[in-house]
Amino acid sequence: IFVVPALTMRLFAEEKKLRTFDLLLTSPVTSANIVLGKYLAAISAILGICLLSFLYPLATSLLTSFHWAPLIIAFIGIYLVGCVYAAMDLFASSLTESAVVAYVMAVIFNMGLWFVGVGVDAVDSPGVRAVFEHISINNHLMGLVEGTIRTNGLIFIFSLIFLFCFLSERVVESSRWR
């Protein structure tokens, strides 16, 4: 929730502040390529952090034995949630030219998505409860942490990634026409 915004806060905001964003817009690449390149850079950094944290289970495996499949699925789930956060934070960075404002907006987006799961316990209506359960990233992540891969969770995660990358591309494209 706090590390990914620190990685992504300067992706677009710093370029706008230093006026290099105009050079990027006049280059012979599409706005989709610009967003995709910055997003791939962000998720590569997140992958490096996840691989670094995987050293602990590797070191622990020297002392004891455990099942690797649920652990790997849990790490994949954590990585995918980091990818969702990166897409949302990329969108936050594309909206402003201040890195600090981008960081604060990204943290608010991340915490907002995380705390939607609290709404599940706050409502009594079964229909509203089902909606909150479906849009809660907590429920989809818990399925992966338990070691089960659910297609509805993966579709939800990839839909969020696509939505926020699309919104970032629209912001970049609108800047191109100004």
Task: Give an overview of the whole structure.
The chain has 178 residues and is mostly helical. 79% of the residues lie in helices and 0% in strands. It contains eleven helices and no strands. The chain has helices at 3-8, 13-17, 21-26, 31-53, 55-60, 68-95, 99-114, 118-122, 126-135, 137-145, 151-176. The longest helix has 28 residues, at 68-95. The protein starts with a helix and ends with a helix.
What key attributes describe this structure?
single chain; 178 residues; mainly alpha; globular
**Uncertain spans:** none
**Residue-averaged pLDDT, rounded?**
92
* Number of DSSP E strands: 0
Separation of the first and last Cα atoms: 33 Å
The SSE string, one letter per element, is: HHHHHHHHHHH
How would you sum up the global shape?
A: globular
Instruction: Please estimate the helix content.
Output: over 70%
Q: Give the quaternary arrangement of the chains.
A: single chain
Profile the largest sheet: none
Structural category: mainly alpha
**Amount of beta strand:** under 5%
Q: Helix count?
A: 11
Radius of gyration: 18 Å
